[in-house]
Amino acid sequence: MNILRLIAFGYFLALLGAASLNYIPGLTDEAGLAFGIFALDLFDDALHVASALWALVAGLMGRRASRLFLVIFGALYLGDGVFGFFTGYGYLDFGIFTNAAAGLSFTLLRVLANLPHLALGGFALWAGLRLDRA
42 with 85: CB under 8 angstroms? Predict the structure, then answer.
C-alpha cells in the first residue's frame, strides 16, 4: 500500500478521534472544554466526521486521491490554525464570522488550542507535496 494512502487512513482515525472528544467521559471539564483548552460543538464534530470520511474515501480510491486530500485538507487546516493565532477563532467553523476578533496572541492556551490544526494541517500539506512524488 502506498504511503499517502496509509497517511489518509491515519487521518481518518485521527479525525474520528477528534470528533469523539466530547463524548468520552473525563476529557471535558465542567465548562465543556476538551482537556480544559478548547470547546467543540456539534458543528465542529460534524466537520471532523466529514473530514474523516473524506480521508477514508481518498485512501480507498488510491494514491492520487489521497495526495489531493492531503494537499487540500492540509492547506485548509493549517490556515485555520494560523487564523486562530491572529483572531482567536478559525474559519472552518465560521468562528471568525460569528465572533469578534480576540487579537493576536501567543499565550499557552492559544497555542494549545491551535496546535492540533497546525500539526494536522502542516503534516498533511507536507506529506501531500513532498512524499511519494511518483
Answer: no
Q: How far apart are CA 55 and CA 52, in angstroms?
A: 5
Look at residue 124 and give its three-state secondary structure: helix
Please report, in angstroms and rounded to a whole number, the separation of the first and last CA atoms in the chain.
Answer: 14
Q: Are 83 and 33 in contact (CB under 8 A)?
A: no
Q: How far is CA 33 from CA 37, 94, 120, in A?
A: 6, 19, 20
pLDDT tens digit sequence for 3-53: 999 999 999 999 999 999 888 888 777 777 777 777 777 888 899 999 999
pTM over 0.85: yes
